[in-house]
Amino acid sequence: MRDDLAEAILATTAALVVVLDPAGRVVRFNAACEALTGYAEGDVLGQVLWPFVLDPDAIPAVELVFAQLLPGRLARRYENQWRSRTGTVHQLLWSNTELLNSEGQVEFIVATGLNVTEERQAQRSRLESEARFRALFEGSADGVVLVDPHDPDVTWPIIDCNEAFCQMNGYTREALIGQPLDLLHEFPLMAQRGEQLLARIRAEATPRNEWTHKRQDGSVFPIETVASLITIEDRELVLGLDRDISQRKLAEAQLQSLSDQRAHDAQHDALTGLPNRALLYDRLAIELARVDRTEKTLAVVFIDLDGFKRVNDTLGHAAGDCLLQEVARRLQGAVRPSDTVGRMGGDEFVVLIPDFTHDHDVLRVVQRMQRVLAAPLELEGQVMQVRSSIGITQAPAAGGSVDVLLSQADQAMYQAKRAGTNELRFFSSRKAR
Fold first, then answer.
1. Considering only CA atoms, which of 102, 118, 100 is closest in space to residue 110?
2. Phi, psi dihedral angles at 235 (to 5 degrees)
């Protein structure tokens, strides 16, 4: 009965069971061994096992062990590789039991084995993967940091980081490990928004963010970070790849400044810095739309300098430019912040005066401009006074479009010029005699 039970166990167990004599000859070779190797028990029974299942290079070491076989000297657990009849290699984990005879000598060795090929392959793959990860981790030019978002005691503690991360933030690795990630933030970002950030990482897989880090010396710099979730030894961690984008931000700011400057230059007079003809047209169109929408009032003032050509001819164009710059400065100082002073070209200036109540309000502003322009000015060693001819038109009283209003103010200016020097006129549709 006991023999039958033993036979049944040998036949049905998934474990490999092989019984050898002290010379390494096969006494039993169970069904699991047959299935693994492709050899029937009858093929190997009474034969030395090694040539059937071991690579030739591995046989001498096993023969040496059996040549020195003594009770208690045989390894209880070990691993080796068996090659099947078809050449497939299997990694096996063995447990040995010695059966002694009445004289205390080894009579049989019972080896029970498990096929651990898949487990060892998985282990090798994991080790290789970890080695590749570590190589990428340490070799990355970007700062790489591992953070635990689930630590109950420390808010998002730093688990590991590479040298680039340390250098970027001005800390040693020893000073960072175990510290909360908020050590590097200007405010407790992870303490306040950690849960939302973790949810976003789960939702978007690798979200990209921009914020700032604070170095150990207190200096603050912008970073771009890409975060993802990884699992290491059943532990969910956040892997962050950080890049110092200070130079990029500087370049972007320079490009934006250049773009802003170009936009400004396209709409402003190069000599005086005042709005040029194009910007004046835009401002006037906006003010006209306000007039139509709100029934506000608008005055358009056209100014032409009297005797400007004589300044250019006698003192030179450089002196003429200085005169135009001074006129621009004085006009800007004479108007309200809501008014617009622009240069149409040459010695012609236009002032837009919105939101006045009565004609005398406009007249008061215009006369103030005349006074500041007439203040003595020294140019090339000569003291002179700036005289001007000024034309004024209004909306909605005069009505019309941008071009019509500018034309009306220009006509009024010529009416003033015909009347003498330093004169002003409101536009009138009546023909001048």
1. 100
2. -115, 120
Query: So what's the pLDDT on residue 6?
Result: 60
User: Based on the structure, what is the number of domains in the chain?
Assistant: 3
- Measuring CA to CA, which residue among 397, 426, 298 is closest to residue 353? 298
- Return the CATH number at 287: 3.30.70.270
**Do 416 and 425 meet the contact criterion of CB atoms below 8 Å apart?**
yes
Can you read off the two tokens belonging to residue 262? 């170009």
- Decide if 63 is inside a domain: yes
Instruction: Output the DSSP codes for 40-55.
Output: -HHHHBTSBSHHHHS-
277 with 411, same domain: the answer is yes
**Edge-to-edge, what's the strand order for the sheet holding 348-354?**
340-345, 348-354, 298-306, 387-395, 424-426
For the cut 70, the answer to whether the pLDDT of residue 247 exceeds it is yes
Q: Per residue in 256-271, is it b (16+ CB within 10 Å) or e — as a string?
A: eeeeeeeeeeebbbee
Tens-digit pLDDT profile for residues 159-184: 999 999 999 999 999 999 999 999 99
Residue 351: Cβ-neighbour burial (10 angstroms; 0-12, 13-18, 19+): buried
Of 133, 161, 123, 127, residue with least CA distance to 145: 161
For the segment 280-290, what is each residue's pLDDT rounded down to a tens digit? 999 999 998 88
∠ Cα 205 208 211 (to 5°): 140
pLDDT number for residue 430:
58
pLDDT at 433 over 50: no
Q: Which amino acid is present at 356?
A: F
Instruction: Judge whether 354 and 338 are in contact, CB under 8 Å.
Output: yes
Same-domain status, 135 and 81: no
Return the axis-axis angle of helices 402-419 and 277-294, rounded to nearest 10°.
110
* 273 SS3 class: coil
344 φ, ψ to 5°?
-80, -25
3-state secondary structure of 92: strand
> What is the predicted pLDDT for the residue at 11?
67
* Domain-embedded: residue 262: no
How does residue 124 score in pLDDT terms, banded at 50, 70 and 90?
A: confident
Q: Which of 67-71, 182-186, 365-369, 402-406 has the lowest mean pLDDT?
A: 67-71
